[in-house]
Every structure is written in structure tokens, then in C-alpha cells.
Fold these 3 entries.
Entry 1:
Amino acid sequence: MLKKGIVVKGILIVGLLSSLTVPTAFAETTNDLQNQQSQIQEERSTIQSELSEVEQEIASVLDELDQLTEQIERVNQAMKDNEEIIKETEENIEAANEEVEILQEDITDLEVDIDARLDLLKERANSFQKSGGTLSYIEVILGSKSFGDLIERVFAITQIAKADADFIERLETNKAELQKKQDSVEKKLTELNEMKTELVGMQHHLEDQIEQNEELKKELKDKEEQNEELISSLLEQDNELAARESEIRNRIERERERARQTETRNQTTSTSSTSTNNRQVAIPNGTVNDVINAGKKYIGNSVYVFAGGRTSYDIQNGRFDCSGFVRWAFSQVGVSLGYSTDSMTTAGRQVPASEMKPGDLVFFNTYKTDGHVGIYIGGGKFIGSQSNTGVAIADMTRGYWRDHFNGRVVRVIE
């Protein structure tokens, strides 16, 4: 009788300790989850601030692009105007060259006329001399037969000389005028050539400016694309954090529900309190084999899709990622798990890898710690949705999966 009393007291003490331990464990877990939630909220707040800054920077870049586009249009118009002026200047240069050539021909013709008139004067002077003789101009005059003949000769020579002198003077005057006009045209031609040189130089400067503006425009476009990519990345991070925050809230609710259920069981009998720590995390309506067999039907007719397995369409068409498949498989026996590998690491109790058995969750370090999860089926193999095969059975005792198995094993069903 004494022995029986001791046993009963022991059971009552264990039950009492269990009733105290569960709320404490729940409080610690909840506090930890709430701390994680607060940290995520801070991270999301930081991301939102960064998003606001990047959006402002994009707006500034767009303003710069608009201003630069207007500047490029102005420079393009200036180049067109400059090209028209260069074209007009080239036409003026060509006309001036033609005018110079014509004036040069006129001057040459005048020079020929002057030389011809000088030759004619010589011939006229010689006509007053004796044929083959060497009489001078004076001798011609002195050789007159009479005074009247002298007068006639002198008058004739004077008139011829005067006429020839006037003609030569006119030619010389015309030649001087032509030369003056030619000098003026050549000066204009020089100015036009200098103007063309300046315009061509300006055109090169404008072309360089356009090239620089286009480079700057490209840099601004690249900056805009980088900012858009950054926004996309920040939004993706924010969505991921939002999903984690939602998962944490769900976990907190699950912990509270578990605590309420545990407290209810503890209040029923002290014996149930004693066994609480050794029961499964979830109360399934099937066995581990049911979980494994449910998953096997997708072998060979499924595909890996990131975030797959969350909708009825995905499930009907065999579209799963690793955590989506594991969650679906356990839901077939009424066990609810989180959507992420992180949440599944705390979905049950941790057991040593040496003690793992079919139905346990096994984790692998892939792109991150605990980045991949599968369901152990025994014999060193697990079933899961792999990125290269979809749902398939893989060997974790060799090759890639052996090298990436991190030793974490979580038992969801006892």
C-alpha cells in the first residue's frame, strides 16, 4: 500500500512538473518567435526605407534623362543648322572661285590687248622710217619735204601716239579695276574658307557633344535598370520576409494551440501529463507509410517549381518545391506543417541522425543552411522534390546528398 502511494505521488509530481514545464517552454518558444517577428519587422522597415530612396533616385534619373534628351535634340538641331550653313558656304566658295577664274581670264585678255597695242605702236613708228633704214622718229619728222609735210607728219604721229596712249591708259585702268575686284573676291574667298574651317570645327565639337550625351544617357539608362533590379530584389526580400513573418505568426498560434491542448491533457490526468513529452508532435489520422506512399504517386510525373505545391493547380499537376511536397505529403494524414524549410526544422523534435527512421524529415545544406528537405524512407534513402528530377527517391549515403546532408533530423510523427 505504501509503495502504491509512492507511485501515485510520483505520478502526481511528474504531472505537476509537466504542467509547469509546458507553459515555460511555450513562453520561451513564443518569446523567441516574437523576437524573430520583431527582427523581421525591423528588416522590412529598413527595406521599405531603401525602396523609398531607390524610387526617389529613379525619379531623379528620369528627370535627368528628360533634360538630357532635350539637350540632345537641341544639339541635333544645331548640327542640322550648321550643316546647312556649311553647304551654303561651300556653294559661295565655289561661286567665288569661279568669279576669280573669270576675272583672271579678263586680266589676261587685257594684258594681251596692251601688248598688241604696244606692238602696233612700234609698227606705226617704223612705217615713218625708210624701208630697211635706221631713221629715228625725229629723222622721220625732219625728213619731211615741206613745212606742210612736216606739220602733217607731226600731227599724224601725235594723234596716233595720243590715241594709243589713251587706249593703253584705259586698258591699264580696266586692268587695275579688275585686279582690285579680284583682290576683293579673293579676300572674300579667304573669309569663306576660314568660315568653313570654323564651321567644320564646330560640327566636330557638336558631334563630340552628342557622343558624350549619348554615353551619359546610356549611363543613366544603366543606372535606371540597376535601380529597377534593386527594387525587384528588395520587393522579393520583403515578400520573403512577409512570408516568414506570416509563418511565424502561424507558428505562434500553433504553439498556443499546442499549449492549450497540452494543458487540457494535463488537467485530465497526471498520467497523460507524464506521457506528453513522449508523444508525437501531431496526432495523425494515418501512418508514416501512408505519408510515403502518398508521395510516391508523383514519382516520374512531377516537376520542381519554386514555391510550388501551394495551390490546387500545382498539386493536380505535380508542381512542387521541396517544402511544398513534404507539407502536402503530411497533410494527407492530417498533419499540418509550415511552407518553408526553416519552419519545418522546428515542426517536431530533433533526433540524432543515427536514430532516424522512416517518416523523419531530413535536411540538407544547399543554397543555404537547411535549404532542402525530404522524407526519410529507410535504407539510406529519402523521397523529395529535387530541382533536377521533380519528386523522386534519392540516396543520401553517397554523392551530392551525402555531401550536403547536415545531420538535422526532425521527427514529426512518433
Entry 2:
Amino acid sequence: MQFSLLLLQTAAPPSGGITGALGQALPLVIMIPLFYFLFFVPMQRQKKQQAAMLKGLQNGQTVVTTGGIVGTIIAVNGDDTLILRVKPDNIKLQVARSSVTSLVSSDEAKK
């Protein structure tokens, strides 16, 4: 008996109509565009920059692959492969163009 009285006392009165529904949906309506602009727009921008970097690869540039290999491009074969020279033994490796993650600046390459 006491438990049912306690439940009746703590139950919130029903909120009124449209203002209640709008008040509950408003945070969700605000969060969806915010989530889009905070996560998807930067990801799309980064994807475009990566594609432009891969398209502009040239001989003589020093690159880092997804496997962590640092090498200098000595040949660009077609649209999808590169030949890298890897120090210290000047080993030549053929890698996929898509495996290149970043360019190494000339200051870092000299070190």
C-alpha cells in the first residue's frame, strides 16, 4: 500500500500537448545538424585533401606509406603504383599510390 502511494506522489503530471513534444524534440533537432557539421564536413574536407595529395605525387618527393615506410618516389607507374627508394640500402619498392598517407617536408627529409 505504501509503495503505491509513493509511486502516485512521485509521478510527474502529464505535460501539455505540443509544447511538451516540441520541448523533447528540440534538442534532437539541434543535435543532428551540429553532429553533421562537427564530424562529416571535416571528414569530407580531409578526404578531398588526401585525394588531391595522391593525385599530385611527383618524382623526388619523400612520402610515408600506411605501413610506416619512408621513401623517395623515383617513378610513377600509371595511375595506381609508385616505385620508392628506401634508405639506407637504396632498396626499390613498388607500392600502391593509395598506400601513401603523407608527404614528408624537405626539412624532415634532411634529418
Entry 3:
Amino acid sequence: MTLDPHIRDKYQMVVGLEIHAQLNTRSKAYCADLNEYGSAPNSNVGPVSLGMPGTLPVVNRQVVQHAIRLGLALNCNIAESMYFARKNYFYADLPKGYQITQDTTPICTGGHLDIEVDGESRRIGITRIHMEEDAGKSIHDQDPFDTLIDLNRAGVPLLEIVSEPDIRSSEEAYAYLAEIRKLVRYLDICDGNMEEGSLRCDANISVMLKGSSTFGMRCEVKNMNSLRNVQRAIEHEVVRQILLIEAGGTVEQQTRNFDAVSGTTSLLRSKEDAHDYRYFPEPDLQPLTLTPEQINAVRSEMPPLPAELIARYTTELGLKEYDARVLTEDKAIALYFEQLIQHTPNYKAAANWVMVDVKSFLNQNGISINEFALKPAQIAELIELIDGGKVSHSVASQNLFPALIASPDKKAAALAETMNLMQDSDEDSLTSWARTALESYPDKVNAYKSGNKGLLGLFMGEVMKLSNRKADPKAASKILQQLLEE
């Protein structure tokens, strides 16, 4: 679908996201069945998750703690009293015929998350976070005639994060979802893997005329398994709704499916309202009460979060904000950098080594930082050698770094000695090489003294050749300039 840019510019999109984070607890939300991805179909099931008559649920304490952690990280109010509810609907992969969730008393309310898009900060409100259990999985593509059901996922704990309709562009939606994914990984409550379904996102999308304060009718779009697909689905749905309005039609409240191949949405069903689910309090679970002491106990164990690390790196360590954001993009990288700066005071060099050399090696070899052979202390040894004038940065990066990876049990200094990589900083040796280099190009020396300062590189190249690339570049350059000024 194509849309005239002038028509598109008349409208403002309004988007709210509902994100389901599958928690990494050992057992399910309300029973002891194993919570594990990738097990054989229907192997992680039991009487409670199968919905057998007479079985009773029990609240998983760790689910509650994970919810508090996320709520605190998103600046939410944590409820001290709440109850669970039943959300009733029929589907083949929902053996009980209902999900245990929270309706009118979510555990977290009223938070926010700050994002950055095109260099500008935006604050997205959080309506609520509530605890619930997942349904099983219907598999439609493995049998030509039948739908297969895997109930391993039935009862797996979820946190649903519902944003306010504050998102005004697909780029903002992308940034918001990426920040939520980063946050749940930092908190170690969810692996954030959208491809495997441990982080899922539904988008509520509507359009209104610019300048209006009345939101249009929204449609909910499902089945988006990547950050990019969320962005694509929003863009397509906005165009579809604008074209429909411009043609004189009316946007109806619907649930729509996103097709990643065609990049289009299609009707799944007319959107249900809350009364369609016949919510009522869960009779088999007691109301839940949290004390301030319990909430503060979780607060005291919170890890440093990306925003806190960025603030510390830019103020205390003096790094640029871009560098700080790159370093905190991945929790494992941030932890590696945190260990590295315990071994060196040269924070800028430490950041550059992690962002350039280490990350390049990881990308080229398709491994994570947890599989990287070198410990942070070994990178600090390389930095110390460079700062001490023992090796140049280029030699350390191009020669010593790969050699150290190949022999991670070796010390960087010992390896540099063995490989004959140590720089010569002896003033007499440097002066001798410098004089020989200048004597080789008397006409170039005259040209330099006449104003052609760019010839210094030629003389430096000759010094490095004479020294077999062992001359300290900084010291050699200084001596050359002194000789040329005589």
C-alpha cells in the first residue's frame, strides 16, 4: 500500500505496547512443573498445568519477586495488597479453560521508561504490570491435516507490561521495546528472546488528525517476533487505517495478525472487551499481601541498570555518552567492562578495547563475551604495555592481541618479549636511527625546513624501518622534530 506523503502528514499515529515477558523461574507460575524451553512436547506437564479436576494452584514466590524487580526498575508503585483473577476463554491449548492473571489489582502501576530517539529523550508511561500464566502452544505447520498441541508452555509465568498510548512513531516503539528487552536481561528475569517467544509484543495502533486530542479506534496487532517486525507492522497498520478513513470508511476495533513475509496485517477476529472474558476473583488462591520490608529486600538486591551505568560512565569515568551506550547495550559486555576497569585507570582505552577489538573478534567468530578466551585482567595488561611505551597500540592490536587469544595462558609482556614486539625507547638508539633517516633524504629535509611539515611521516617510516618497527613512535617523532629544528 502506498500513501501520499501530504495525506500521511495530516495524521498522527498513537501506539501503546503490551509486552509479555516469560520469566526464567525454574518452575511454573502455580505448580512445580519444570519451566524449560526446548523440552520434548508435553513433557513438562502435571495435574495442575493440565487442569485436572480437584487440583489447586500455589503461587511461585520467585514470580512475585521478579515482578517487584521489574516494577522498581520501571519506577512503578508496588501494590501491597492484591488478588488474582480468572480470565475465561475456550481454546484447545488452554486445558483449564481459563488463565490465572490479575485484573483490577495489578502488582505494579504508574511507572515510566525514558527512551532516546534521534538524540531526543522521550518518556513513555507504564499503565500496569501484572502477573499471569501462559497458555499452551498450538502448532499449525507440522501436520497437513491437524493442529498439534504442546502444553509445556501452559502455566509458564509471564509479566505483562502495558504502556500508556504515549508512542508517536514506529521508531519510538522500536526504542521502547529494545529498552524493555535490555532491562529484563539486566534484571535477569527473562532472556528476552523474541524468536523463541520468551518476549512477545502486541501493538495497539490508532490514528488521529494532528492537533486532535481524541484518539481514533484502535486495532491490536499480534504475531511480531522481532523488533524490526514490530516497527514494520506499525507502519503498515497506520497506512491501512489512514487509507480506510480517507476513502470514507471507519476503523473497527479488531485483533489483526502480522505476516512477516508480506509485511501486511490481516483480520483475526473482532476485538474482545474485558467483559467477554468474564473476569472474577480466583477462588483457589488467597489474596496476596506484600510488606514494605519485602519490597525493600528486593530493592536492596537490584543490580546496576543501564541508565545508572551510563550516568556513571559519563560523569565518573569521563566517557562520551555514545561510548557509554554502546558498552551498556549488552549486559554481559557491561559486566566485562566493569571487571576491566578494576584493573586499569585508563577508562577510555578500556572502553576502546572492548568496543573495537573485543567486539570485532566476537562478531567475526560468532561467539558471546562469555565464550571469549581472555579475562579482563589480560586486556588491562595490554593497556599497561601501551601506556608504558613498551608496545605501540597498532602492534598490540594487530599482533599481540591475536597471539594472546591463541595462548590465553601466557602473560602479555612475556609474549611480547618472545615475539620481539617490545618497543625501543632508548634515547641514544632513537637518535641514531633518526639521524640516519634524515641523512638518507637531504633534499626532503630542506623541503621540510621550507614548510612542508607533512614529510615528517616519511622520516618516521624510515626510522621504523631502520629499527625493525621497534622504535617508540612518540619518542622517535619528538627526536625527529628536535633534529629538524636544529
